[in-house]
Amino acid sequence: MSDVFKGYKGNALAALKKFKIRVWSEAHLDTTRGEFKGIILPRSEHDDHEHLVLKLATGYNIGVAVDTIIDMKEYGYKEAHYKIPEKEFPTSPEKPYVKLLGTGGTIASRLDYRTGAVIPAFSPGELYGAVPELADICNLSTEKLFGVFSENMGPEQYKALAVAIGREIEKGVDGIVIGHGTDTMHHTAAALTYMVQDSPVPIVMVGSQRSSDRPSSDAALNLIHATTAAATSDIAEVMVCMFGPTSDEYGLLHQGTRVRKMHSSYRSTFRTIGDIPLAMVDREKVTPLKKNYNPRRKDRNVRIAPNFEERVAMLYYYPNMHPDMIDSLVDNGYKGIVIAGTGLGHVNKPLYPAIERATKAGVALYMTVQTLWGFVHMFVYETGRDMVSKGVIPADNMLPEVAYIKLGWALGQTKDLEKVKEIMLTPICSDITGGEPYNGYLIFQGGIPEIEEFLKKFHK
Ligand code: ASP
User: Model-level pTM?
Assistant: First the structure.
C-alpha cells in the first residue's frame, strides 16, 4: 500500500490516524482557532511533527498546529498531479514565429509539496501545455536557458541571454519572449537593453507573481500578453510585460530602462518610473501609449555587446553612512560605484574624503536619486557642488539600478573614464529623458482632480 501519510511523523501522524484523514483528503478541521477547510498536503521529511499543512481554496497554504485540533472530517479526496505534459506546438506558416527563452522564476515554477518550497519545475514546453491559447497567437519554440530564481541572475546570465537573443534574431524570429523571475526582472531588462543594440524585433520579458498552481495566478495571462506583444507589436525594444491594473483587464509594456518592481506581492507590481508605459496589451492587440519608440524592422542587423565589468557596486546612502563603506569598495578593487543619494543627490560630509580618494584612484562615481522620480541636481546645494568638484558625476534621471547596470556595461567596454562618461550620459531607450510626464508622480496619490475624485469615492 502506498504511504497515505506522506512525510507526516510524530504527533501530526498520530492526529491523522486518529481522525482517519490521509494526505490529499479534502478535510474539514475544527480547531481551537476556528474552522478550516482544505486539502491536506504532503509534508517534507525536514518539517516539524507538530503541524498539518492545509491548502485552502484561495490557493494559500496554512500550517495547523495539531494540539489545536478538536475534530477532523474527510469530505472528499483530491490527489494532485502537478506534472504538466509537454505538448508539441502546432505550426501555421502564416503566423509569426516567436522564441520563448526560459530563465526560471515563479512563471516557470510550481509548489513542491514535498518541501513546501516553490521550485522551478516547468520547462517552456510544459508552459505551452498549460496555456494552449498561445497557439492562436504565434508559432512558438522554446528553450530553457536557466532554471533559477531571479536573485541568481547576474552578468554571466545577462551575457548568455544576449548571445541567445542575437542568435534567434539572426535565425529570423519575429519576436522574443523571456520568462524570468520578477524580483530582478528590471535589472535584466536594463542589461539586455544595453547588450542587445538596435534589435529589429520586440524582446518581451515576462514573469508571474503567483505560481500557476494558484487560482489567482497571473502566469497564463502574462504569457498570452507577452506573446501577443512579441508576435505583433511594432515596438522593437526590450520591454517588461506584466499586469497593468490589479485585475486582469490588460497588461502594460514597460521600457526596459524605466521599469521597476514596486510591490512585493501585487500582480500589478511593475510600474514605469519617470515616464509613461510604452503600451497596453490585451488578448487581441497592442495599443502604444508612447509615440517615440524603436519600430520593428525587417533586417536582421542586431549588435550584441555582451560586456560587463563585475567590480561595480551600488551604494544606497543612509544617514550616518561611514566612509569605510566607500573605502572598502576602493580597497577591494571596485572600478565603479553608483550612489543612490538623498534628495537631489546628496551624501553626508564625512564621506567626502573617501569620495575624493575613490575618484583619484580612478573609480567611476555616479550619483542617482533614491526618490526614483526626478533628476539629480548637484548645483543647487553646496553639498552637491562639493561632490561634483570631487569627481562625482550626476546621472540625470537614470534609475539607480539602471545606472548600476549601465556602468557595469560601460566599464566592460572601456577603462577610459571619459569614454565611460560619454556612454553613461548618452541616452539609450529613454534611460535618461528630457523631462517627466506632467504630474506623473502624483498618480494615485491625489493632487490631480480626477484622482482625488477617485480616492474620495473608494476610500472614504
Ligand atoms: N523570487 C522569484 C524570482 O524573482 C519571484 C518571481 O518570479 O516572481 O525569481
Answer: 0.82
Task: Report how far ligand 1's centroid is from the alpha carbon of 106 (Å).
Answer: 5
Is the confidence at residue 114, as pLDDT, over 60?
Answer: no
Residues 42 and 80: beta-carbon distance below 8 Å: no
CA-closest candidate to residue 191, choices 203, 176, 207, 208: 203
**Which of these, 220, 247, 237, 216, lies nearest to 286 by C-alpha position?**
237
Which atom of ligand 1 sits closest to the CA of residue 185?
4
CA–CA dist 457, 454 (Å, integer): 5
The single residue of 47, 103, 106, 227 carrying the catalytic annotation is 106
CB of 111 closer than 8 Å to CB of 118: yes
| b/e per residue 121-160 (b: at least 16 CB within 10 A) | bbbbbbbbbbbeebbebbbbbbebbbbbbbeebbbebbbe
What interhelical angle do 417-425 and 400-411 show, nearest 10?
A: 140
**CB-based burial label for 215 (10 Å; 0-12, 13-18, 19+):** exposed
Q: pLDDT, tens digit, for every residue of 308-358?
A: 999 999 999 999 999 999 999 999 999 999 999 999 999 999 999 999 999
- pLDDT at residue 127 in the model: 63
Q: Tens of pLDDT along 261-271?
A: 999 999 999 99
**Displacement of CA 144 from its chain's centroid (Å):** 18
| Ligand 1 mean position, distance from CA 266 (Å) | 12
209 CB near ligand 1 (under 6 Å): yes
Question: From CA 179, how far away is CA 101, in angstroms rounded?
Answer: 6
367 touches 376 (CB < 8 A): yes
The Cα 249–Cα 246 span in angstroms is 8
For residue range 45-96, what is the model confidence (pLDDT) as tens digits?
A: 667 889 998 888 877 788 899 999 999 999 999 876 555 566 677 888 999 9
For ligand 1, say whether the CB of 179 is within 6 Å of any of its atoms: no
Ligand 1 atom nearest 208 alpha carbon: 8
Distance, in Å, from the CA atom of 53 to the CA atom of 41, rounded to the nearest integer, reads 6
pLDDT digits (tens, 9 = 90+) for 193-207: 999 999 999 999 999
